[in-house]
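Let us work through a complete example step by step.
Step 1: write down the sequence.
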Amino acid sequence: MTLRARHALDQPPDSPWQLRYLGQPEMGDKSRGAAMRSYLDTCTGPNLPDFLTEIGFKMDYEVVCKGYMFRKGKMKITITKVFKIVNPGSFDKLEAVSNSHLVELSVVVSAASDAITEDIKSFSEQLKPIVTMEKVDPRKL
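Step 2: predict the structure and record it as tokens.
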């Protein structure tokens, strides 16, 4: 089971967290232009990390992402720089994971919709000179 917990660092400490359940990626059709997976989002209270620990979850990693989000139609594009936390629990000292930026493109569609993959391919072709977009098979990570 994969859960992602997110929290804005520029908000008060008692601000809500976002919890996202990620389903298994559908990697069946190799000709599909994008990987698809189901997900479920919910807003929670400020005690989410304690609650998840209490019911037996363990944290795999903790990172800080700084960047920008853009929208183009149904597509959401995020450009972020990923930092690892040098002193856990303190965000004063961060170390960049790489010199590159992470570019993610996501779209929320119904399960039966494959038409949006052409829009995703077209958009990635426009970025080709500066960004190489590729599908990632999470089973190989």
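Step 3: interpret the result. Residues 116-127 form the longest helix (12 residues).
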